[in-house]
């Protein structure tokens, strides 16, 4: 037996009736094993009253939870311990009226939206699949539907004769109708004229801020259907929020966005597609030195931020919404979205975006040139090392000789300083030893070319 608490394993030194909450949490999640007589470190402490517990625990589980569990006796190191095997429940389980859920190695009490999603999930349904009462095809945007069909045909992801099919057939094939022929939440989100009929928080909020999150300068709210939303958000960003630094490639004038459009579009599409639409708004906050995108909805249990950056399967929260965007060619179905964002930023000479789970959602922070004098000083670097980094930023690189001359220091001191900056992963050595050696920024960001 492997030791260590995980998503499916919990250790308790002795049994208490309150641990029925843990049984409840496992049953509502992925099932699991609770061991009685083992401490948090996986050390076997043993139980003496195992005979009584082997009778009491199954009875209490049935009486309080309506759930049948198996309790097995094990022995090791001369001590007895119990294993409670908790199955996955097909129906929501409550303990004294409270729904518990095992997430990671912790137990949570489910309330509000989280509880609603559990109840739907146990019924084999998702919010996007629920019927919208009183909605007909006249409440949908015909131009959006037509644009979708044309894009999907161009991508060869739906048959060319789809243009001749009725909307009923198309939406049925896309999983946007219930078995009774009613339009779903996903259908209205994708193509509806008024999303408020299914979600009052389906809008996409954009704000331009000063130096702090309290200093809102101006804002926009995008209230189109979500099929058109990404294009509208990008359009507004280009017109009002982002600048185009002018540069030249030969005689050709270049005006790319300050953040790569490919990365922005991918992140915005991810936020729209994977959002929990039973929750709050999606927010895009634009600052002088960064752009912060946040959408509600935690990652699925199968994924972590680290796994997102590796080769992984796709686990869309809203599978039919994701399928529609895939059919239209807006996304790929191979779970490469995060890597495309990272690669686009690095290719544009920008730092890797900061991606993390935050406040019940997913946060993506795009950074500009974060390597300013203030930033270096905050790293508690000596002044002469800060000067060396600023020199690299201006000139693209620095040699040992240049650093000696810049700071009027010995070769030995210069070598030690540059090695310290390499150890701290600010810079790396370029070229062979001797006069051909220079030092450049390690991350190859937009601080010099």
Overall number of strands: 17
Percent range for β-strand residues? 15-25%
Q: What overall geometry do the principal axes of the alpha carbons give? A: flat
State the CATH class of the largest domain. Alpha Beta
Mean pLDDT: 87
Any idea what the radius of gyration is?
28 Å
Total individual domains: 4
Biggest beta sheet attributes = 6 strands, mixed
Structural class given helices, strands, pairing?
alpha+beta
Portion in helices: 25-40%
In CATH, the architecture of the largest domain is 2-Layer Sandwich
Terminal CA distance reads 54 Å
What is the overall number of helices? 15
> Which residues sit in consecutive blocks of at least 5 with pLDDT less than 50?
444-449
- The strand line-up of the biggest sheet is 9-8-12-13-15-14
The CATH topology annotation of the largest domain reads as Heat Shock Protein 90
Protein name: DNA binding domain-containing protein
InterPro entries: RecG_C_sf, Schlafen_AlbA_2_dom, Schlafen_AlbA_2_dom_sf, WH-like_DNA-bd_sf, WH_DNA-bd_sf
Organism: Zunongwangia pacifica
Written account of the structure:
It contains 15 helices and 17 strands. By secondary structure, it is an alpha+beta fold. The protein folds into 4 domains: 9-124, Schlafen, AAA domain (Methyltransferase, Cobalt-precorrin-4 Transmethylase, Domain 2, 2-Layer Sandwich), CATH 3.30.950; 129-197, no CATH class; 204-315 and 325-367, Heat Shock Protein 90, CATH 3.30.565.60; 373-441, Winged helix-like DNA-binding domain superfamily/Winged helix DNA-binding domain (Arc Repressor Mutant, subunit A, Orthogonal Bundle). Helix 7 packs antiparallel against helix 8 (261-274) and helix 14 (400-407) crosses helix 15. It has helices at 20-28, 50-65, 112-122, 142-154, 167-173, 185-191, 226-241, 261-274, 305-308, 319-327, 337-347, 373-378, 383-395, 400-407, 411-423; strands spanning 9-12, 32-36, 70-76, 79-86, 94-95, 98-103, 106-110, 204-209, 216-222, 247-249, 252-254, 282-286, 290-296, 354-358, 361-367, 427-430, 438-441. The protein has a 6-stranded mixed beta sheet with strand order 9-8-12-13-15-14, with helices on one face.
